[in-house]
């Protein structure tokens, strides 16, 4: 068995010797040029003139590109074609690329990029949610609204009402390897691009547009990224396109790597949100109705903001059955970096909204935080019982020219019909919840972490201590798995078996540390009954597997694992048929196990079997394809089945807060997470641990600050606090829930990239619990709960002004 | 400006602009790309290398300051890439994306010598020593090496396992 083994990451040996190559480590051809962008120093206004003489005259500068020098499309947007590579006439945020310097060295390019003199006429910059609302500056005509039942009536008639607001900040990805691309010009105008990207196909598409060539003229390769977290889904487009254009113009290899501060100033981050809520509860603590108004600060360009904001709406229920609900979502356009994908893709923000409601209501109703949540859980259901789905009528799909169909920002949908059966328990968007397992998971976690006794100990501590307050909190996660843009839920793979029995594996997913390559190789090894070392994992390459979706939405191993399985099975079946024929055996009786192939009493090594198949003129190469079944989603109506299944998790965090300063620590975290039948428990536990810490970082230490001019003031790790080794909880217990996915995923596993991120919400709620112990009022803690914010919230709890 | 130092046991002579950092000299002039450039500000630790056995952020140090020094990068931590610490990182899967790994390894190597040599840290109870590799000491001494994937449990487990063999180890008091 190769599947389900806790094998280390595929490149572990290379990483510990420094031999694992990232884009900036690749040997480059002689004469390689380096690029840097000249950036806007103002947030909003018209460009009157750009004096670039000093830039051109600077040492080492070979060429300076402006928008006017671009031969074809000046666009790096993944969606609305509203994101020029280089600014044209106007500037929409501070840090926007205005021109590109091509020079003989990285340093020469960066030095010269500072020398541009830009005359401009400033316009008032919209920097905040309030400012954007006042100016009605938004994407889409108005807010999206999903409604079920009669929330206003239900809330008005409820025994208890809670009303409030939570502000939550954005988050910088800080992938440790910054954005980077290398373009290598080929014969006949072709371009080979090596990019640190989660989405090679989109890079290919945007580079092809920029060079005026068909997609077959561009090949994009990605071996690995030094972290992605969503920040390399669309944000790498600019570098790859700039390098390709410069490489075409100069005929030389061109490389670009953002300096860290530039990276933070130029690229998009997690959307910061404000959520207003009004909810009604009955006397038993059950929610009868809730209304959310979500405001997302999307920045200057649309990017992936629509599906991000959609997903925030889709996770407004988290794990709770909401009988009457209204979710209104505003996608606000501001003069800041264009907010983009980040692990969870809006899900964390939506989920924090309902968790705030639960936290607030528990305080008002005097209920324990766990109790109120359990009373509102969806029911646990067994598999089956769904109604047959009628076939959907074909719909006309009109696709605007140049639409990047492989982007999550694409404005095209093919709604089918996936109505839930009558009487089923459904989400606010009408999807049946039939795989709910949080009752059992919660029970197990509370027992294993000794919640009841620790809850009492925390209360006891707080009764006896005035200065250091403790807090403990539980939070569950139910996260929908699939791209909400249904057609992206497809994947391809390419597998070769060579005559010596070694296997070459390729698929559309990219490796960014999440262990995808290892998991998929385990699947391939399992299908052929060989050792994982006998499977060679190769760089993602648009010339090997075309039309791939981004490695995103946690879907990497679900989609690519199945595609690889399909390809391997095709080859294995061909080998089996050939061997069976030679041995007068049935093909179904040929077994591939332990590196051996058993057929009709004979036994061969896998290599011998491959040789026999080759000599027998059997093709040992195959492509595999997979598409997720049963999905149908109408994002305008907010109805359908956007997700194949849900992944679950539960966490308990305990914290301590110094009430004099707001200083705080996470003392302990206990997590039980659902990875289905795990493909690799070691990798999955790593994802859960890392997700929790990163999620807690978002809600505690990681604070983005823009000044009144729209300048990002936190543009390096010196001012933007990323969790370090010392911020990890002192006691950190992580376990995987033992259960198979009821849906037919690859070996019944579940996606694991994003869901654990939201377990970090429990740390935020524990801080809220500690702060609430300081006074009678609900503290309404905002995120990130920095020491300053905690200090202010303590004053609110005490009813003091600060 | 001519500079000579030894990198991973090999003598190197370079003629460099005096503003070239040690990190750029290693990566761009000696093709030793194992040391990574994460922030170029000395804040992330991805560029950590050993100079005469002590760890430094190579991005904050000029190459010409190292004339005559013995420099060790991740490529030189062992002959075959299988030092006990390197193998422990693999065994405990102390990495996800791997970009911080070279710095973590160099840093951890130096931390073990610092403890063995009796250097106190910010969290040490005494300035007199000796010190053991407690969880608290480890967290403090490794806090300059950021892992954005937050793979700290794996990293710590690997270091603690080797420290136990090498320099003594004490379970932190709860």
From TrEMBL, chain A:
Keywords: Molybdenum, Oxidoreductase. Its EC number is 1.17.1.4. The keyword Oxidoreductase applies. InterPro entries: Ald_Oxase/Xan_DH_a/b (IPR000674), Ald_Oxase/Xan_DH_a/b_sf (IPR036856), Ald_Oxase/xanthine_DH-like (IPR016208), AldOxase/xan_DH_MoCoBD1 (IPR008274), AldOxase/xan_DH_MoCoBD2 (IPR046867), AldOxase/xan_DH_Mopterin-bd_sf (IPR037165), Xanthine_DH_Mopterin-bd_su (IPR014309). Pfam families: Ald_Xan_dh_C, MoCoBD_1, MoCoBD_2. GO terms for molecular function: xanthine dehydrogenase activity. Residues 382-425 are annotated as: Disordered. Residues 17-124 form the Aldehyde oxidase/xanthine dehydrogenase a/b hammerhead domain. It comes from the Bacteria. SUPFAM superfamilies: CO dehydrogenase molybdoprotein N-domain-like, Molybdenum cofactor-binding domain. This is Xanthine dehydrogenase molybdopterin binding subunit. It comes from Arenibacterium halophilum.
From TrEMBL, chain B:
Residues 1-77 form the 2Fe-2S ferredoxin-type domain. The keyword Glycoprotein does not apply. Pfam families: Fer2 (PF00111), Fer2_2 (PF01799). Coiled coil: none annotated. Transmembrane segments: none annotated. Keywords: Iron, Metal-binding, Oxidoreductase. This is 2Fe-2S iron-sulfur cluster binding domain-containing protein.
């Amino acid at each position: 068995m190769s599947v389900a083994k806790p094998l280390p990451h595929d490149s572990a040996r290379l990483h510990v010797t420094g031999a694992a190559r990232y884009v900036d480590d690749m040997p480059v051809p002689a004469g390689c040029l380096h690029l840097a962008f000249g950036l806007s120093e103002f947030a909003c206004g018209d460009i009157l003139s750009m004096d670039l003489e000093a830039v051109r005259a600077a040492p080492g500068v070979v060429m300076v590109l402006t928008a006017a020098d671009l031969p074809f499309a000046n666009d790096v947007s993944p969606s609305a074609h509203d994101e020029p590579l280089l600014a044209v006439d106007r500037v929409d945020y501070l840090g926007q690329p205005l021109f590109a310097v091509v020079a003989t060295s990285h340093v020469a390019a960066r030095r010269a990029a500072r020398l541009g003199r830009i005359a401009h006429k400033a316009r008032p910059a919209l920097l905040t949610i309030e400012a954007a609302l006042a100016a009605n500056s938004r994407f889409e005509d108005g807010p999206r609204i999903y409604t079920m039942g009669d929330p206003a009536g239900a809330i008005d008639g409820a025994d208890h009402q809670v009303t409030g607001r939570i502000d939550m900040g954005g988050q910088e990805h800080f992938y440790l390897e910054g954005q980077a691309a290398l373009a290598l010009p080929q014969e006949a105008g072709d371009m080979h691009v090596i990019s640190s990207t989660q989405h090679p196909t989109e890079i290919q598409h945007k580079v092809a547009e920029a060079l005026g060539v068909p997609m077959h003229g561009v090949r994009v390769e990605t071996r690995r990224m030094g972290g992605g977290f969503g920040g390399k889904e669309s944000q790498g487009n600019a570098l790859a396109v700039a390098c390709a254009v410069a490489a075409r113009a100069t005929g030389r290899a061109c490389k670009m790597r953002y300096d860290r501060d530039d990276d933070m100033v130029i690229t998009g981050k997690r959307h910061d949100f404000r959520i207003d809520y009004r909810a009604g509860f009955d006397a038993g603590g059950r929610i009868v109705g809730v209304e959310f108004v979500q405001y997302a600060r999307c920045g200057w360009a649309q990017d992936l903001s629509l599906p991000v904001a959609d997903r925030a709406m889709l996770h407004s229920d988290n794990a709770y059955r909401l009988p009457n609900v209204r979710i209104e979502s505003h996608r606000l356009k501001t003069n800041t970096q264009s907010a983009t994908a980040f692990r969870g893709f809006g899900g964390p923000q939506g989920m924090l909204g309902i968790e705030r409601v639960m936290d607030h209501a528990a305080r008002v109703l005097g209920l324990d935080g766990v109790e109120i949540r359990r009373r509102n859980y969806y029911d646990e259901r067994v598999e089956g019982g769904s109604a047959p789905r009628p076939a959907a009528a074909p719909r006309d799909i009109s696709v605007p020219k140049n639409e990047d169909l492989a982007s999550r920002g694409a404005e095209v949908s093919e709604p089918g019909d996936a109505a839930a059966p009558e009487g089923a328990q459904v989400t606010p968007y009408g999807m049946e919840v039939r795989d709910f397992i949080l009752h059992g998971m919660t029970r197990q976690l509370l027992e294993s972490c000794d919640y009841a006794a620790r809850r009492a100990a925390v209360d006891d501590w707080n009764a006896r201590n005035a200065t250091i307050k403790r807090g403990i909190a539980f939070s569950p996660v139910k996260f929908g798995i699939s791209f909400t843009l249904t057609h992206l839920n497809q994947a391809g793979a390419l597998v070769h078996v060579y005559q010596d029995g070694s296997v070459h594996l390729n698929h559309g997913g990219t490796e960014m540390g999440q262990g995808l390559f290892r998991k998929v190789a385990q699947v391939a090894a399992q299908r052929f009954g060989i050792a994982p070392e006998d499977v060679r994992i190769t760089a993602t390459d648009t010339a090997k597997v075309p039309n791939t979706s981004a490695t995103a939405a946690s879907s990497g191993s679900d989609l690519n694992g199945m595609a690889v399985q399909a390809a391997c099975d095709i080859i294995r079946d061909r080998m089996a048929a050939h061997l069976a024929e030679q041995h007068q055996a049935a093909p179904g009786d040929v077994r591939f196990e332990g590196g051996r192939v058993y057929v009709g009493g004979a036994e061969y090594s896998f290599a011998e079997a491959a040789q026999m198949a080759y000599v027998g003129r059997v093709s040992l190469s195959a492509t595999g394809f997979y598409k997720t079944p049963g999905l149908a989603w109408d994002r305008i109506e907010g109805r359908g089945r956007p997700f194949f299944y849900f992944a679950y998790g539960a966490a308990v965090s305990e914290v301590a807060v110094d009430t004099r300063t707001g200083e705080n620590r996470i003392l302990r975290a206990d997590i039980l997470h659902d990875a289905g039948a795990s493909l690799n428990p070691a990798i999955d536990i790593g994802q859960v641990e890392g997700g929790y810490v990163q999620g807690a970082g978002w809600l505690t230490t990681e604070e983005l600050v823009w000044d009144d001019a729209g300048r990002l003031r936190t543009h390096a790790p010196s001012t933007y606090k990323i969790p370090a080794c010392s911020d990890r909880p002192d006691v950190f217990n992580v376990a995987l829930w033992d259960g198979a996915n009821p849906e037919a995923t690859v070996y019944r596993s579940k996606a694991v990239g994003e869901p654990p991120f939201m377990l970090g919400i429990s740390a935020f709620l524990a801080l809220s619990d500690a702060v609430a112990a300081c006074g009678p009022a609900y503290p309404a803690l905002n995120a990130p709960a920095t020491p300053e914010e905690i200090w202010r919230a303590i004053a609110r709890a005490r009813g003091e002004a600060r | 400006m001519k500079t000579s130092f030894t990198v991973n046991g090999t003598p190197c002579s370079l003629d460099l602009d005096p503003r070239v950092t040690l990190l750029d000299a290693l990566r761009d002039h000696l093709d030793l790309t194992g040391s990574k450039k994460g922030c170029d500000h000395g804040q992330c630790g991805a560029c950590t290398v050993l100079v005469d056995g002590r760890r430094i952020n190579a991005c904050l140090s000029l190459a010409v300051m190292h004339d005559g020094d013995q420099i060790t990068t991740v490529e030189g931590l062992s002959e075959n890439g299988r030092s006990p610490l390197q193998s422990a990182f693999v065994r405990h899967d102390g990495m996800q994306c791997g970009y911080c790994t070279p710095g973590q390894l160099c840093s951890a190597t130096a931390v073990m010598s610092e403890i063995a040599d009796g250097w106190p840290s910010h969290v040490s109870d005494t300035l007199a020593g000796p010190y053991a590799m407690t969880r608290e000491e480890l967290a403090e001494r490794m806090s300059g090496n950021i892992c954005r994937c937050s793979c700290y449990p794996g990293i710590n487990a690997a270091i603690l396992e080797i420290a136990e063999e090498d320099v003594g180890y004490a379970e932190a008091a709860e």
